Known about the structure:
single chain; 294 residues; alpha/beta; Glutaredoxin; two-stranded antiparallel sheet; 49% helix; redox-active center
Amino acid sequence: MLTxxxxxxxxxxxxxxLISALALATFVGWRVAKRGGENPESALFSLFLLGMLxxxxxFVIAYWAHYRNDPWQIIDLxxxxxxxxxGVIVLLLAALYRGWRRPGLRRPLGFxxxxxxxxxxxxxxxxxxxxxxxRLPDVTLVNAAGENVKLSDYQGGPLVINLWATWCPPCRRExxxxxxxxxxxxxxxxxxxxxxxxxxxxSTYLETQGLSLSNVLFDRGGRLGQxxxxxxxxxxLFYSNDGRLLTSHLGELSEASLARALExxxxxxxxxxxxxxxxxxxxxKLPCPASxxx
Length: 294
């Protein structure tokens, strides 16, 4: 499961874990302060913001090549571009400094920040292990010719699956980024799985926007989103050669956040025996030529 859905509201689990960690830290700090000490609520919130700022700045520095030509993207946090460990280090250093300057804040702030950070680390690690244990869903989709195709037909090489819709503003904004990546990375297979829209409306949209995409598929019943546990759009999934989920991204992708996700494919993996690799490649459905839809 990638999102928690309540009615029409959906929140990514990693965002929910972050909010829960802050809430836990505030509660623990408040309880400790009742036994003696200052209430650390404002200090914890400011440390949280400082850590997020450090995580964002670190991400921008690490992927500066993707921000250089469009600096306004730096303040667009919707791409989810953050590096966790620099943020954690800055948060801890700032907490130590606050505790040194204000003795009455030491215990409440220490227990609060420590409990929140420990919860976030363990929960994030567990979520990552769970995600990477999931496999490519056994879902049948429809291509532009009205033919049924299985996701497993594309297995055998690195796979990027984007769940999108024409009515979704973040989907529309990220589409040129994904189109460019598809043209620049022929070693990857990109699948654009439209959610519950007609072929005609999708074709018209792609033509009017001047988008040239390969492998546009149709999921009329939204079965793929249900299978992967994400009711939010856009959702982008990154699968390994053997169909394991490497990572996922909920929300809009920028050039930088997509580049970071694609780095997962550059990580060495255990080699597949030659006979198995040959049979997998021959059975794998190859990308169709770049066109509006196919």
